[in-house]
Amino acid sequence: MPDATARPERIDRPLLWQPLAAWRNAAGLAALSPWLGHAGSLTEKLRSVVGAAFHVRVLHEDTAPLGAEDAVLLDTVPGTAARLREVNLCGQCPLVYARTLAPAQAADWLQDLNARSLGDRVFAQAGTERGAIEVARLDATQSLYRAAIQGIDAPPAVLWARRSVLEVHGSRLLIYECFLAVPAP
Hints:
- By secondary structure, the chain is α+β, with helices and mostly antiparallel strands.
- The protein has one domain (18-179): Chorismate lyase (3-Layer(aba) Sandwich).
- The protein contains five helices and eight strands.
- The protein has helices at 33-36, 42-50, 68-73, 118-122, 143-148; strands at 18-19, 55-65, 81-90, 94-103, 129-130, 134-138, 159-168, 171-179.
- Strands 1, 2, 3, 4, 5, 6, 7 and 8 form an eight-stranded antiparallel β-sheet that branches.
- The longest helix has 9 residues, at 42-50.
- It is globular and about 40 Å long.
- The model is unreliable at 1-9 (pLDDT under 50).
Protein backbone atom coordinates (compact mmCIF):
# COMPACT_ATOMS: atom_id res chain seq x y z
CA MET A 1 0.00 0.00 0.00
CA PRO A 2 1.45 3.42 -0.95
CA ASP A 3 2.51 5.82 1.78
CA ALA A 4 -0.33 8.34 2.29
CA THR A 5 2.16 11.08 3.18
CA ALA A 6 4.21 10.71 -0.02
CA ARG A 7 4.11 13.72 -2.37
CA PRO A 8 2.17 13.02 -5.53
CA GLU A 9 4.05 13.28 -8.82
CA ARG A 10 3.90 16.77 -10.29
CA ILE A 11 1.64 16.83 -13.32
CA ASP A 12 2.07 19.71 -15.71
CA ARG A 13 -1.07 21.60 -16.54
CA PRO A 14 -1.09 22.42 -20.27
CA LEU A 15 -0.35 25.97 -21.31
CA LEU A 16 -2.80 28.06 -23.26
CA TRP A 17 -0.82 29.91 -25.94
CA GLN A 18 -2.79 32.69 -27.63
CA PRO A 19 -2.12 35.91 -29.54
CA LEU A 20 -1.47 38.87 -27.23
CA ALA A 21 -4.80 40.47 -28.21
CA ALA A 22 -6.67 37.51 -26.72
CA TRP A 23 -5.25 38.42 -23.29
CA ARG A 24 -6.17 42.14 -23.43
CA ASN A 25 -8.40 41.96 -20.33
CA ALA A 26 -6.00 39.88 -18.23
CA ALA A 27 -5.02 41.44 -14.90
CA GLY A 28 -1.45 42.65 -14.60
CA LEU A 29 -0.68 42.50 -18.30
CA ALA A 30 -0.86 46.18 -19.31
CA ALA A 31 2.74 47.02 -18.32
CA LEU A 32 4.13 43.95 -20.10
CA SER A 33 2.19 44.31 -23.35
CA PRO A 34 4.88 46.42 -25.11
CA TRP A 35 7.45 43.76 -24.22
CA LEU A 36 5.33 40.75 -25.09
CA GLY A 37 4.31 42.15 -28.46
CA HIS A 38 7.76 43.44 -29.49
CA ALA A 39 8.61 41.81 -32.84
CA GLY A 40 12.23 42.99 -32.98
CA SER A 41 15.19 41.92 -30.89
CA LEU A 42 14.27 41.62 -27.21
CA THR A 43 17.99 41.90 -26.44
CA GLU A 44 18.14 45.28 -28.14
CA LYS A 45 15.01 46.50 -26.35
CA LEU A 46 16.33 45.40 -22.94
CA ARG A 47 19.74 46.92 -23.65
CA SER A 48 18.09 50.24 -24.53
CA VAL A 49 16.55 50.33 -21.05
CA VAL A 50 19.24 48.85 -18.79
CA GLY A 51 22.30 50.00 -20.77
CA ALA A 52 25.72 48.65 -19.90
CA ALA A 53 24.27 46.50 -17.09
CA PHE A 54 22.80 44.16 -19.73
CA HIS A 55 24.37 40.70 -19.79
CA VAL A 56 23.50 37.10 -20.60
CA ARG A 57 23.81 34.37 -17.98
CA VAL A 58 23.98 30.91 -19.55
CA LEU A 59 22.01 28.44 -17.44
CA HIS A 60 22.08 25.25 -19.49
CA GLU A 61 23.02 23.92 -22.92
CA ASP A 62 22.31 20.40 -24.12
CA THR A 63 20.54 18.28 -26.69
CA ALA A 64 16.92 17.26 -26.09
CA PRO A 65 14.20 15.47 -28.07
CA LEU A 66 11.43 17.75 -29.32
CA GLY A 67 7.98 17.29 -27.87
CA ALA A 68 4.99 17.10 -30.20
CA GLU A 69 3.98 20.77 -29.92
CA ASP A 70 7.52 22.09 -30.35
CA ALA A 71 8.08 19.78 -33.33
CA VAL A 72 4.96 21.13 -35.07
CA LEU A 73 6.15 24.71 -34.55
CA LEU A 74 9.56 23.82 -35.97
CA ASP A 75 8.04 21.88 -38.87
CA THR A 76 9.70 18.60 -37.96
CA VAL A 77 8.74 15.31 -36.29
CA PRO A 78 8.35 14.70 -32.54
CA GLY A 79 11.41 13.16 -30.94
CA THR A 80 13.81 14.92 -33.31
CA ALA A 81 17.00 15.87 -31.49
CA ALA A 82 17.32 19.62 -30.96
CA ARG A 83 19.95 21.86 -29.46
CA LEU A 84 18.60 23.41 -26.25
CA ARG A 85 19.93 26.65 -24.75
CA GLU A 86 18.58 28.27 -21.59
CA VAL A 87 19.73 31.71 -20.44
CA ASN A 88 18.74 34.64 -18.29
CA LEU A 89 18.82 38.06 -19.91
CA CYS A 90 19.89 40.30 -17.07
CA GLY A 91 20.34 43.88 -15.95
CA GLN A 92 21.00 44.31 -12.24
CA CYS A 93 18.88 41.16 -11.81
CA PRO A 94 17.46 38.49 -14.13
CA LEU A 95 14.81 40.08 -16.34
CA VAL A 96 13.92 37.34 -18.81
CA TYR A 97 14.38 33.58 -18.87
CA ALA A 98 14.85 32.45 -22.49
CA ARG A 99 14.79 28.91 -23.86
CA THR A 100 15.76 28.25 -27.47
CA LEU A 101 15.26 25.00 -29.35
CA ALA A 102 17.03 24.43 -32.65
CA PRO A 103 16.78 21.21 -34.67
CA ALA A 104 20.00 19.93 -36.28
CA GLN A 105 19.75 22.10 -39.41
CA ALA A 106 19.51 25.24 -37.22
CA ALA A 107 21.84 24.25 -34.36
CA ASP A 108 24.75 26.27 -35.78
CA TRP A 109 22.96 29.45 -34.69
CA LEU A 110 23.46 28.38 -31.06
CA GLN A 111 27.08 27.27 -31.54
CA ASP A 112 29.79 29.15 -29.66
CA LEU A 113 27.49 31.86 -28.30
CA ASN A 114 28.82 31.48 -24.77
CA ALA A 115 27.57 34.61 -22.94
CA ARG A 116 26.55 36.38 -26.16
CA SER A 117 22.90 36.92 -26.92
CA LEU A 118 21.23 34.89 -29.65
CA GLY A 119 19.33 38.07 -30.56
CA ASP A 120 22.60 39.83 -31.38
CA ARG A 121 23.50 37.03 -33.78
CA VAL A 122 20.23 36.42 -35.60
CA PHE A 123 18.94 39.99 -35.83
CA ALA A 124 22.28 41.04 -37.36
CA GLN A 125 21.35 38.84 -40.34
CA ALA A 126 19.39 40.39 -43.19
CA GLY A 127 16.07 38.64 -43.69
CA THR A 128 15.54 37.40 -40.14
CA GLU A 129 11.80 37.04 -39.57
CA ARG A 130 9.82 36.40 -36.43
CA GLY A 131 6.67 34.33 -36.79
CA ALA A 132 3.49 34.95 -34.86
CA ILE A 133 4.01 35.75 -31.19
CA GLU A 134 1.90 33.71 -28.79
CA VAL A 135 1.48 34.57 -25.11
CA ALA A 136 0.74 32.39 -22.07
CA ARG A 137 0.22 32.91 -18.36
CA LEU A 138 2.46 30.60 -16.30
CA ASP A 139 2.24 29.38 -12.73
CA ALA A 140 3.85 26.68 -10.61
CA THR A 141 1.81 23.94 -12.29
CA GLN A 142 3.86 24.27 -15.50
CA SER A 143 7.41 23.05 -16.09
CA LEU A 144 8.29 26.20 -18.07
CA TYR A 145 7.50 28.32 -14.98
CA ARG A 146 9.60 26.05 -12.76
CA ALA A 147 12.53 26.26 -15.19
CA ALA A 148 12.23 30.05 -15.40
CA ILE A 149 12.32 30.65 -11.63
CA GLN A 150 15.36 28.47 -10.88
CA GLY A 151 17.74 30.60 -8.82
CA ILE A 152 15.24 33.46 -8.39
CA ASP A 153 15.00 34.40 -4.70
CA ALA A 154 11.40 35.65 -4.58
CA PRO A 155 9.62 34.51 -7.74
CA PRO A 156 6.21 35.93 -8.57
CA ALA A 157 3.27 33.54 -8.41
CA VAL A 158 2.50 34.22 -12.07
CA LEU A 159 4.79 34.83 -15.02
CA TRP A 160 3.89 35.96 -18.51
CA ALA A 161 5.71 34.31 -21.38
CA ARG A 162 5.80 34.50 -25.13
CA ARG A 163 6.95 32.11 -27.79
CA SER A 164 7.73 32.55 -31.44
CA VAL A 165 9.68 31.00 -34.26
CA LEU A 166 12.58 32.92 -35.73
CA GLU A 167 13.47 32.09 -39.29
CA VAL A 168 16.94 33.05 -40.44
CA HIS A 169 18.45 31.86 -43.72
CA GLY A 170 16.01 28.94 -43.90
CA SER A 171 16.66 27.78 -40.32
CA ARG A 172 13.88 27.76 -37.74
CA LEU A 173 14.52 28.48 -34.05
CA LEU A 174 11.80 28.22 -31.40
CA ILE A 175 12.18 30.77 -28.62
CA TYR A 176 10.35 30.90 -25.30
CA GLU A 177 10.80 34.08 -23.24
CA CYS A 178 9.46 34.32 -19.68
CA PHE A 179 9.37 37.78 -18.14
CA LEU A 180 10.72 37.79 -14.60
CA ALA A 181 11.17 41.50 -13.84
CA VAL A 182 11.13 43.89 -16.76
CA PRO A 183 11.91 47.60 -16.36
CA ALA A 184 9.45 50.15 -17.72
CA PRO A 185 10.12 50.92 -21.39
